[in-house]
Design a protein that fits this description.
ABC transporter involved in vitamin B12 uptake, BtuC; globular; mainly alpha
Length: 415
């Protein structure tokens, strides 16, 4: 039945795992996990990992690895923080309208530059990516510390802070329902168009019950997620300020103003859609999967494998820049330990999401779901007041188990 409906069993398994994690932590934490407040915070916290995991998919698919993403995040984040907190204010003053744009562009450019450098060493000099990025893990962390001599750089530009979510970094109730409506319409359009294209070219049609089930479940999931985000309200003091700004009367019992979907979540979803389009619909994405499947055949087929690998690391660097912007905006500061162990969560998210460490296999949505699984584990352990060392142990065990499942799945598929 699953084969006829073309449902990805691994994705279905991850969804079941996520459900078990959420329900389990909800009971073990005394009913605090599945609350609008915790789920809203969870959505914000998982966004940087999800953003970087989409890039890690392509890196691993191309039979490489990037162990330096955490240190790169620290370097790019520290550079962006120094620029907006110490350099631009001396020239244009603090909170200049163009500050956040300039800082973001510089961060993306710096991430791309670091990625191109590491990719060039891997592709053109021939040093294994494991060694190059392991060295980068040490080098970029040291450079990040040297930029500020271990200081914490704060505060960030007020407009830039919106990128990190917070009480003002969301689109509100109406905007969230608009996004939900567009998402449901996109799901319906995709399913109808997919069936039309299959008929047109004579491909096997998916059962109608499968299309209806996927459409209904997907739409309900979107609407449920938005309803949950809108069920979390602004703190009283912030809500009072918003009411004064909008000229609203403050009632005796207070005013509930929904936060809605946060900007980090929108950024993560946008990155997922763009990266999914690049991986599945563009020539570059097909080249990456071809290289991962058989590098020699890809090169003999006319693919510039070296330049493709460089571009893959460049994309990874750009996404690290986006994640760094979201991270320091959420913290409203950049610290010397920014991004520590982030590479572990990013790689684990990609592998849990179905990306094979042998190359050639991986999905962007799977990596995003893997990031949600990893962040759910961490969030649940924090609610249960689990010590940090034990949290690291759990994450390490989950990573090993994920790789073991990948190996078992591939062996079974090859039979």
């Amino acid at each position: 039945m699953l084969r006829a409906s073309e449902i990805d069993t691994r994705m279905l398994g991850m969804l079941a795992l996520l459900l078990v994690i959420w329900v389990g932590f909800h009971f073990m934490s005394g009913g605090t996990f599945l609350t609008p407040r915790n789920l809203w915070n969870l959505s914000v916290q998982f966004s940087p990992v999800a953003i970087m995991a989409t890039g890690m998919v392509l890196v691993i698919v191309s039979r490489n690895i990037d162990l330096s993403v955490g240190s790169m995040l620290g370097l790019v984040g520290m550079a962006m923080a120094i620029i907006q907190a110490e350099i631009i204010p001396d020239i244009f003053g603090f909170d200049h309208p163009a500050t956040w744009i300039v800082v973001l562009l510089i961060g993306l450019a710096l991430g791309a530059l670091v990625g191109v450098f590491q990719g060039a060493v891997v592709a053109y000099i021939g040093v294994p990516s494991f060694i190059v990025t392991l060295g980068g893990l040490l080098v970029w962390r040291g450079v990040a510390w040297s930029l500020a001599s271990g200081r914490t750089i704060a505060p960030m530009d007020s407009t830039f802070q919106l990128l990190g979510g917070g009480s003002r970094g969301s689109i509100g109730e109406v905007g969230s329902w608009v996004i939900a409506g567009l998402a449901v319409a996109a799901i319906v359009f995709y399913l109808v168009n997919d069936r039309r294209q299959r008929k047109r070219f004579g491909f096997t049609l998916r059962p109608m019950w499968s299309l209806v089930t996927v459409g209904v479940v997907g739409s309900l999931a979107v609407l449920g997620a938005v309803w949950t985000m809108n069920s979390y309200y602004l703190p009283v003091n912030v809500a009072r300020q918003v009411a004064e700004e909008r000229g609203l009367a403050w009632p005796e019992g207070g005013l509930d103003i929904p936060l809605g979907i946060s900007y980090p979540v929108l950024i993560a979803l946008g990155v997922m859609l763009v990266m999914g389009f690049i991986a599945n619909r563009r020539r570059y994405g097909r080249y990456v999967f071809s290289i991962g499947g058989n590098p020699e055949a890809a090169e003999l087929g006319g693919i510039n494998t070296r330049w493709t690998v460089v571009k893959t690391f460049m994309v990874m660097g750009i996404l690290v820049g986006v994640a760094a912007a979201v991270t320091i905006a959420r913290l409203n500061a950049a610290t010397s330990g920014l991004g520590t162990l982030a590479e572990l969560y990013v790689i684990a998210a990609a592998v849990i999401g179905g990306t094979s460490l042998s190359g050639g296999i991986g999905t962007i949505p799977g990596a995003v779901l893997g990031a949600l699984v990893m962040q759910s584990l961490q969030s649940g352990m924090v609610l249960m007041r689990v010590d940090a060392p034990l949290q690291d142990i759990v994450v390490g065990v989950v990573l090993v188990v994920a790789v073991a499942v990948d190996v078992f799945y591939r062996r079974r598929s090859e039979r």
